[in-house]
Amino acid sequence: MGGNSPQRRKADELPGALESTDEIAEILDDRRPAVFLDYDGTLTPIVSQPEDAILSDDMRDVLRDLADVCTVAVVSGRDRLDVEPLVGLDQLVYAGSHGFDIKGPDGLRMEYEGGVEHLPSLEAAERELHERLANVPGARVERKRFAIANHYRNVAAEDQDRVQEAVHDVARRHEGLRVSGGKKVLELRPDIDWDKGRAVFWLLDALDLDDDDEVVPFYVGDDVTDEDAFRALSGRGVSIVVGKPEYPTHASYGVEDVAEVKKFLEFMIGQAGGNR
Question: Is 165 exposed, middle or buried (0-12, 13-18, 19+ CB in 10 A)?
Fold first, then answer.
């Protein structure tokens, strides 16, 4: 499929999605899109406190209109029970905890079995991290069902190493957990072969959207955890990175910010409506 490449590139080398709408329309041709979206940094700007990442009414309206013409899924590192009410649209699919916990319309439901087996280790690690980081000003330990997010955005630069050392040390103490990075956050997750990319392919299969001749999957995200989905969709779909990450990306196009995400989704409403 055109429009995507397995090679990683710097974000500033990518063509802009809004400047490439003719090319993207050509990739779609007469097929239907299925749109997968990260939440923080994609549908809402990055903020210092996660609870302040509130979806705008305008973005919610765009998501509602898009869901009227194609499948829309929010694939987030947040707990599903956290991100679902933040979006507040019953017609969307929600994949929380990087895809470990999925729910959608018409009884769609999946909780990845491999993650459930690691809940006792996560509980023990959470207790240890609270103890280790209690005296680090600005550090925040956020327990999710299938992960522990350790935020250090509000930690002084000279103390950030303490957070990172604590997280890696606790991970070493608990077999079956691994550390993954993000924007000023380190997460402990089950060390199993499941991520946003695999969750997207599970959804394509579960929703009967896995026919290349009928459907083109789109994924829009801004963080390193979204790279799993970008990589998985190389050669199969269209991936769009938000912003300018410092690391090379598997995305095929870029947009500058949340405002440009909204404009792109508005373009997709027209494309999806015409291909129904």
Answer: exposed
